[in-house]
Structures are given as structure tokens and as C-alpha cells.
Automatic annotation (TrEMBL), chain A:
<dbReference type="GO" id="GO:0005886">
    <property type="term" value="C:plasma membrane"/>
</dbReference>
<protein>
    <submittedName>
        <fullName>Sugar ABC transporter permease</fullName>
    </submittedName>
</protein>
<keyword id="KW-0472">Membrane</keyword>
<feature type="transmembrane region" description="Helical">
    <location>
        <begin position="70"/>
        <end position="94"/>
    </location>
</feature>
<feature type="transmembrane region" description="Helical">
    <location>
        <begin position="106"/>
        <end position="127"/>
    </location>
</feature>
<dbReference type="Pfam" id="PF00528">
    <property type="entry name" value="BPD_transp_1"/>
</dbReference>
<feature type="transmembrane region" description="Helical">
    <location>
        <begin position="244"/>
        <end position="263"/>
    </location>
</feature>
<feature type="transmembrane region" description="Helical">
    <location>
        <begin position="12"/>
        <end position="32"/>
    </location>
</feature>
<keyword id="KW-0812">Transmembrane</keyword>
UniProtKB/TrEMBL annotation, chain B:
<feature type="transmembrane region" description="Helical">
    <location>
        <begin position="76"/>
        <end position="100"/>
    </location>
</feature>
<keyword id="KW-0472">Membrane</keyword>
<keyword id="KW-0812">Transmembrane</keyword>
<feature type="domain" description="ABC transmembrane type-1">
    <location>
        <begin position="74"/>
        <end position="285"/>
    </location>
</feature>
<dbReference type="InterPro" id="IPR051393">
    <property type="entry name" value="ABC_transporter_permease"/>
</dbReference>
<keyword id="KW-0813">Transport</keyword>
<feature type="transmembrane region" description="Helical">
    <location>
        <begin position="112"/>
        <end position="132"/>
    </location>
</feature>
<dbReference type="InterPro" id="IPR035906">
    <property type="entry name" value="MetI-like_sf"/>
</dbReference>
<feature type="transmembrane region" description="Helical">
    <location>
        <begin position="271"/>
        <end position="288"/>
    </location>
</feature>
Amino acid sequence: MNSSRYRPRNFILEIAAILLAIIFLSPFYLVLSNSVKGLKDILIDAASWPQVFHWDNYSKVWDAIDFPQAFFSSLQITVLSVIFIVLFSSMAAYQIVRKPTRFNSFVFLLLVSAMIIPFQSLMLQLVRVTSILELRGELYGIVACYLGFGMPLSVFLFHGFIKTVPFELEEAARVDGSNPYGVFFKIVFPLLMPIIVTVIILNTLWIWNDYLLPVLVIGGNKDLTTLPVAVTKFFGQYTKKWDLALAGLVMAITPILIFFLSLQRYIVEGVTTGSIKG
Amino acid sequence: MRKDLRLQRGWGQQIVFLGPCLLFFLTIVVTPFFLGFYYSSTDWNGLDLDKAVWTGAANWRRIFTNDDKFWESLLFTLRFTVISVVAANVLALLLAFILMTTLKTKKLLRTIFFMPNVIGGILLGYIWQFIFTKGFATIGELTGISFFKLPWLGTPSTGFWGLVIVFVWQTAGYMMVIYIAALAGIPKDLVEAAKIDGARAPQLFKSVYVPLIMPAITICLFLTTSNAFKMFDLNLSLTKGGPGTSTQSLAYNIYAEALINNRYGLGTAKALLFFAAVSLITVTQVWLTKRKEVSA
């Protein structure tokens, strides 16, 4: 904002910002340090650094929530859904941009207006629809749901981006004898990379963290229980056993934190693009 | 003949490209949406729809005349939305301004402030349940500050503020990122010109920065408003609507009506009202702030 020189004023701002960041992070510190304490130590003093490390909190919870199972079903649901969302929504957006018939424009309008519908307004009827179509308790069923809910924003993002892709490239390929599918997958799709990253990130964060949809659609199928659902069940049983509950919490947030920290530049960029377009 | 072939291929492409998207969107979003109008006039209990009886306007009458809890949660949700939207955006703007200046730890700080966002609301609620019940109590004993000694999840008003604190903690970093992008897009010479003309910090903020980042303000207000109004996960894991039903959000009220009381028909009617309220509030807000947008 001001000049780019580092002045005393900047130093004071820096200290203030760091203090604020420490306050921001303190919940994570409290959860992390107490997750390796015994229950008695937590109840006596939740702020101090652990005297004795109870690593066995983790191994107990690992078995109790069947962490590998929950992790892999979250992973497979998220990955499958995101792949198909990227594929189907980019194809749809391409068709809408390049063939702007009255029908296609109407479809686009429908998708965009659906973004405003809150999930709670659909969920009860969705339970009915998914059981009629025998989607409940099945992997393809929950993925189908994420595809439906993921479409509006993703098509919207691709739509905005494809409008900026020069048409000449496609014409050239078409003159060279490529069919429409070849043009899309060989020429257009690779050009969409920046927005594909955004679509992947926004959908991954949402689907990975989602709680209510898996509860409603997966229901009792234990093989498909996702991480947020498993942790919630666990919390319900161990309300007063903070040592185990906190270890479970740390295990549940670790995968997505690793995802964030290793891809943070893209994530922040993706979030920015996503919201400016949205 | 040739023309026919081309036409056919046009149809083929339409089906291949748009078909999958439409199939899932119509099945998962559009069909349930319209079914809602039907179910909201039945006494469907969630199990056998065959036995659900058409009850006409009964659900609606019940909501409007005999359902104080619903209106209490609407009031709660409105209050929560107004306060947390203002708080989250003020904090986000403040952070964005601080992190626009030359700081050595700028990148690290941005990462830290954004971090709560990548964790789901359900887990954040549990994290804070621990902080409020055990963490704050310990800090209160150590420091003697009465703020930390409050029964944070034990009374309606502290429960309300607890939810506000967690929501702001979760959301501010996300909005900060959007504000930073907007601030970075402001032409430097414009700011310099205003300074040469003698504009001081408050004036600079009001007459230069705010008008120029108005599009970002529109977006951030839209996102925070609709998220706050639809709050569910946080509510479920942090207070469960309690004590009693004093911190029950509208979304939670719908959930409880259907899945705990098994009144799906009534729940659907509430969900439709909920949709109307969300649309009304967000469309009004976007319309109001859009009018204030200018271009540099």
C-alpha cells in the first residue's frame, strides 16, 4: 500500500499481526498438546505442555473409529466425485458457450439460479429420490449426489473461462479434420488447466468436509462411513473422554491440513478465482 | 443427406456433452426441489410415502400459528447472521490491509489466517467445544480474566457468542484472501494522487479503497451472509442447539423436525420457507451493494 520500504511502523504492524496469528492458532495448540495427555492431566491443566506423552491415545482411536476405513472411503468418494465433476461440467460448459441455443442458455440459467438453493431445502426429498433410484448406501449413489450438487458452480466457473478461450484454435483443428470430441479433449481441455485446478480445489474442500449428505445417503453402510461422520459418531460416544476425543480430532483434520499446506499457493489462488467468478 | 448427417452429429454432441451434467443435475437438484412443493402438503413421516396423506395447508398453518420454535430459530439466525457477517468482514478487511504492507512474515501469516477454513465445520465445532469447556476454563484460572471464566456453552447468550466467535475465526481468513486480491488490483497511481491531494488515512479508506473494492465487498458479504444464514455443521457439533433450543439455527430446526421428530412433511414446508428467506436476503444484499460499485 504505502511504499515498499520496511519502516518502524511496519515493524509494529508485524508484531501486532504475529500476536493475532498466535491467538488464531491457539485452538490448534490446545487440541494438539492435550491429545497426547492422560485424561487426568487434561482436567487438571489444559494449557500446559504434556508431562508424559500418551501416544496410545492415538492407537486406541485408530482402531475405535477404524481410521483406515474412514480415510479411504472419504478419499474414494472425494476423488471419484471430483474427477467426474471436472469432466462433465467442463463438457457441459463448453457446449453451452459454443452452441448458445435458446435451450442451452436456459439450462445455464437454471444451473446458475440453483446455486442459491440451500441444501436443507432439498435434503428430505433427496432421501426419497435416492431410495427410489436405489442409490442409498452405495458408492455410486453418493458420488451421483455430489455430481448433482457440484454441477452448478463448476459449470459456472468453466463457462466464464471458456468464453475467454479463442475460437480460432478450434477452427484450425477442425479444418485439419478433427471431430468435435477431438477438438474438445485435445485442444480445449488442456487449455482449461487453470480453472480445472480451481474446480478441483473448491469441490475437494467441500466434499471432503461434508457431513450431512453422507449421513443421509450412505446411512448405515459401515464400509462407506466418511471421516467427518466417523468422528461425529465417536464424539457422541466419548463426550467426557477428552483424551481419546482429541486424538480422534487431530487424526481427522491432519489429512486435509496436509493437503492444504502442500498445495496452499494453488488453494489460495483457486479460492480467489472461484469467489471472484462466483 | 449431408445436412442431415451434420444435424445428427449436432444432436449427438449435445447429448454427449450436456447429457451427463443434465442427468445428475435434474435428478439430484431439480426433482427434489419440485417434489418439495408436493411433500410440504402431506404428513409424510419419512418412511412410507404411500401412507402419507395430503393435508393441504395444514403444515403451513401450523408453522405460522403454532410453531414458536421455528420463529425463535429464525430470529436467532437473523441476529447471528447480522453480527457475524459484520464482525467477519471487519476483521477480514483489517487483516487484508495489514498483510498488504511490507511485512517479513506476510506469506506465513496469510497461510495461518486462512487455515481454519480448510477444516470442516463439524470438526471446528468439536475443536471449540473443547476450547470453550476446558481450554478457556484453564486460561481463566491462570490469568484471572473473567472473560475466560464464563460458562461458554452453558447459557443462551454465551452460546450465541461462542458460535459467533467460531464462525468469525473460520470465515475471516477466506474473506481476507478475497480482499487482498481486490486491494492488489487497485492502481498505485490512484492512491498516490489522492495522497498528493492531501487525503488522510480515513479519507483514503472511505473515498478511494472502499469504492474500488466494492465488487469484493459484494462477494464477501454474499458469501458470509449465505453461509451464516445456512449455518448447520457448526451448530450441530458445537452447541447442538442448546442449552434447550436457545441456539438452534434455522437449518438445524429443519433437520431436527424431520430426522428427530420424524415430521418430514412439516420439515419440507419449513425448508421451502427457508429457501425463500435465503433467496430474499441474499438477492437484496447483492442488489444493494452492486449499486455502489464503480469502476476505476
